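[step 3/7] fold_predict: job queued, chain A
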Amino acid sequence: MKTIRYLGDVCIQLVRALGGIALLTKQTVRELFTPPYYLGLTAEQIVVIGLQSLLLVAITGITCGAVMTLQFGYGLEKFGGKLYIPKVMGMSMIRELGPVFTSLMVAGRMGSGMAAEIGSMKVTQQIDAIRALGTSPIKRIVIPRLLAMLICLPLLTLFADLCGMLAGMGVGMEIGLGGSFFIEKFFEGLIWNDYWTGTAKTLFFAFSIVMIACYKGLNTEGGTRGVGNSTQWVVVASSISIFVADFFLTKFFIAISN
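[step 4/7] structure written:
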């Protein structure tokens, strides 16, 4: 009985969260195209999300590219397919690993940061003060972060792909593949659909990360403990949304490209 009650509570909380995120999305889209525009706040968020995440994204891309090349190298070498390592690694990196792992890292770093910052503003009544001054919290808080994330996450993904390719080239040289050969075959196995689908996924991931983080931050209650709970909730929810969205986006892009 307790298990059924717990599952029921989880379902109710899930529906409530999805409804709240949908309402926040509707309000954000409605206010996105109306003045005033806070370009300074957007530029500030671009620095925070983009420039300050470069090291984390670089480490993610390097380790991912190196490990994938190493695994494919020893796996395909048994079947005489070592020459196909750059192609397989390139397709995996550009289509899936680069977008997904970069988005997960950014969600863990920036999603939790947004939720903590906005949640702190909520529990200290700064959000109410913004409303009292006649300013929309959506315009000052949500929209700058959304625009910055939509700009930065695709660029960070491309940077991670580049780091992964260079790391893969280094590992490939260790297992007997020339550097120029690796680069040539890396790009030879890719087509235009691979590039744009991998980049397009990050736009959906960016939107979900910001909406989830801002929704939870704006609805934080319970003081500092509530801020901590919101941060944890956002990291888990953002990661799940990325995995689920990746599956359906992959099916959608495969369907429209055939």
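[step 5/7] annotate
The radius of gyration is 21 Å.
The chain has one domain: 37-253.
exit 0
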